[in-house]
Amino acid sequence: MKMKDQAVLSSSLTKPEAPSRSKLVKALRRYRWYYLMMLPGILYFLIYHYVPMAGIIIAFKDYNLREGIFGSEWVGFRNFQTIFGTPDFYELVRNTVVISFYRIVFGMFPDILLALLLNEIRKKWFKSVIQTVTYGPYFLSWLIVYGLTTAFLAQDSGIVNHYIQELGGTPINFLANSEYFRSILIGTDVWKNTGYGAIIYLAALATINQELYEAAVMDGANRWRQVWHVTLPGIRDVFLLLLILRIGHIMDAGFEQVYIFLNSRVYGVGDIIDTWVFRRGLEELEFSVAVATNLFKSVIGFILVIGANRLSKKFGGSGIW
Amino acid sequence: MSKAKVKVLFFLFTAIALVLSACSGGNGNQEASPSGAASSAASSAGAPDSVSDSSGKRLALNWFLMAPANAVLPDGETDFITSTIEKKFNVDLNIQYLPGGTDYDNKLNLLIASGDTPDLFITTGTASQKMIMDGITADMTPYVTPEKMPNYFKWVSETELQRYAVENKFERAPVIFPRKVYRSYYIRKDWLDKLGLQMPTNYDGMMDAMRAFTKNDPDGNGKNDTYGFGTVGSGTTISLDFPQWIQNGLIGSFMIKDNQFVDVQTAPEVQQVLQGVKDTIKEGVVDPDWFLMKGNEAVDKAASGKLGIVVGGTKNFAFDSNPTSLQNASKAINPQADWEPFHPFAQTGAWTENLPDTAFLLSRDTAEKDPEKIERIVQILNWIASEEGFLLINYGQEGKHYTRSGSTITVSQANVDALQKDNIEKGNFMGVYQQSFYTGSQEADVLGLTVVDESMTDRDRAIADTIASYKLIPSIGTNVAPPTGFNLADYRKKMREYHVKIVFDEPDASNWPKYRDDLLKNYGGQQMIDTYTEQIKAAGVIK
């Protein structure tokens, strides 16, 4: 099947004198079943991903729930002025970027590490058990994770503070302390998501040609050398791909989690753009401001993805396209 | 791939495509529905007579109500309030309900934003303002009138209704709200007795009791595991339960002082309040977990015997006759437990008088498209406010849950047990109606009824009398709305952040004047205070 396709492709390429229009029709006719099969997918993206984008226009309108998207009044860049005029906006951007950055740095390496460790396990049953156990927390909602965190870290009733007191220390209100807040966010994130993140790398590791290892052994490479020269280069592309994608989301610092963990003592280090948008957009019904903020975020994300992709290609990686 | 197989595949994909496009079609319709609704509304508004003769038609009504946290509406006849309304008014009620709070507001906002505005919904005063400004709500002038809702106007006066309007639009009305204030401190009397202390009558006495409760092992278990006072900060705020607010002359959340409007949490005196709270916390007499605790957690902790003083807001908060009261919950753990009300500022002002807060609103879409639905809702609301509705919602069914002779309603212990079985154990569905339409109050005297609750003990009556004796200061007299363009959420967030910063992270409260300045100037606080002052002046409360 694949061979036939290639044959057709090359034969059509070798006849450049044919009029391009009829060639297109011919191609369309020839592959009509495939195009038909593509249709549902294309429709899905059009209907659920491209058409709703028209809603972006409310970033430039004073959205009124009753007038709807098209009936509301145009206000130009007023919503953006509101956003950038919010006294706390720069603090919000800073928190968002810092938390995202921590997530990238401290979130990606444990994934790789776990995948590498799992990859070295030779006993299949043991590997499966560990993988299942580490994958488990991924299915818990943040609300439950917060409950668990409180059970450990609450000032009066938490286990950790109980031991601190037993050992003669003063209890620390971890969850309401600016010094610990980001660490708790990242720590629980790593606990919850590492098992899931490792799966992608495990899949990449499985595609590495075993002959490469055999060759390395022949050349006298020990375990470490094998990891360095075979395994890591083997997952480099996946790593870069994920890195680029995550850089694109640098303005999303994990709303679900932060919203649940946030309290007013840690606003200074933990309040992010998304929690502000939630308070402002949904709780105060200012949808236009919310959309404008997200448009701003998307533009930044878009620029970053393009930039990261360029950089990746420049340094010899494959990039994402 | 054979031709037949390709054909099968083709049909499969066409089918999927059809299903998908059908879904998307439905989606498109939904998005378009607000405008579609408006156009059909215009046509039906032109011919209102055509609907009046079909008043016997069964209508489906969507309501969005506030509920107590433990409420679950059961199906069918079990819920005798819903089934009575459905039979009496020939309607099908589709009731969605949540406990009031952020989640409630968000759910409601989502419904409205997606074009599914409920026909009748309940919101807090603040949330209703934006909805009115955005034109979500129907004009109530033709509906909420003394002619159409005579029973409702027994509870709420026309002046109150006028002052409750937003920007002169009569699009919201308060649900029946309590005239009496039941807010009080409650203290473990048994602990006081054990430690040989008197019931505190002033601030210093209260602080002494808190200290003794923390340090002198009032529960006698040999462990240092009790605290004098507990409250909830919900992770955001310095609770108004802290007695330091009133100690510094700040009562309620808004007040009038020397003919001036005061936003309590922005006042200059907040400096002394925060200093006081800070010192109290430092003494170790406040439950250290208070700041992150939410909702009912402090009361639960009090019930488990860890706290000596908490604030209760409802009449039967510590009644023997209320099976879910703090008193009964505590007794289940320690039979000696005895919660008694007291207030250190009982003589000088314990709280402000009540203003209407929770509003009911009607959907404008429904009013334009299906005015008969609104008419029917208004009839139902009028019935809810009637004697019959009041009794059914608050006391249950006659003969089963209370007996009546003349204007005296008698509730015996057997009645209480029956109600426990028929309501509380069936999901507390009455709570949904009580909370939504009576703000949880049962002021039968408004209807000229006397309720004799035989299950109430002498202790319960003593509690009620004590709380009734607290002095209340006048309210600000009218509901106020923040200026347009002012973002109240951002303002309060910053304000709380400063409060919390001072209490937890700064050596003393000396930075408050600086922070207050920032709030007033950079976060629009002055503008808010000025606007509120104007509105209160316009209502004639201050000069």
TrEMBL record, chain B:
Protein name: Extracellular solute-binding protein
UniProt key word Transcription: no
Residue ranges with Low complexity bias: 32-51
Record region (Disordered): 30-51
Source organism per UniProt: Cohnella zeiphila
Signal peptide: 1-24
InterPro entries: Bact_solute-bd_prot1
PROSITE patterns reported in the protein's UniProt record: PROKAR_LIPOPROTEIN (PS51257)
Highest taxon above the source species: Bacteria
Keywords for this protein: Signal
Keyword tRNA processing appears in the UniProt entry: no
